[in-house]
Amino acid sequence: MKYLLWLLKAAIFFTLFAFALNNQHDATVYFFFGTYWRAPLVLVVLAAFAGGLVVGALGMLPGWWKHRAAAAQAPAANEAQPSASPTATTAAATAAPTITATDLPAVRQHGL
């Protein structure tokens, strides 16, 4: 399985390498006010891909921060609830922990 994974990685690498070698012609990207950038096509494609990654990650940051804050508050909310008796605490500690849907923070589903 390990060799098959390495073979797949090598195939992807050589495919991308062949793409880069076949697209060495200059491409011109025109910006506003008469400015332009002239570079090999493979660099233009790579820059567009990297720019898309950055914009996508920046767009996801507010959601990540919100989920991180909810996850940080979840243990604090569980510790704030007092237990009924000390024997219930020791019995709960020896039993296998179970997680119910009410223990998890609410997650909103986004549809397209």
Characteristic key phrases:
112 residues; mainly alpha; two-stranded antiparallel ribbon; 3 helices; 2 strands; elongated
Q: How large is the radius of gyration?
A: 26 Å
Number of helices: 3
Strand content: 5-15%
Low-pLDDT regions:
none
Give a count of the beta strands, DSSP E runs of length 2 or more: 2
**Straight-line N-to-C gap:** 37 Å
Overall spatial form:
elongated
**Order of the strands making up the biggest sheet:** 1-2
Helix content: 55-70%
- Could you tell me the mean pLDDT? 80
Structural class: mainly alpha
Task: Sketch the major β-sheet.
Answer: 2 strands, antiparallel
Strand-and-helix sequence, N→C? HEEHH
Question: What this model shows, in words?
Answer:
The chain has a domain at 13-72. The mean pLDDT is 80. It has 3 helices and 2 strands; from the N terminus they run αββαα. The protein has helices at 2-22, 41-80, 86-94; strands at residues 26-30, 36-40. The chain is elongated and about 65 Å long. Strands 1-2 form a two-stranded antiparallel ribbon. Helix content is 62%, strand content 9%. The longest helix has 40 residues, at 41-80. With 112 residues, the chain is mainly α.
How does the SSE layout of this entry go?
Elements (H helix, E strand, L loop, with lengths): L1 H21 L3 E5 L5 E5 H40 L5 H9 L18
Antiparallel strand pairs: 1-2
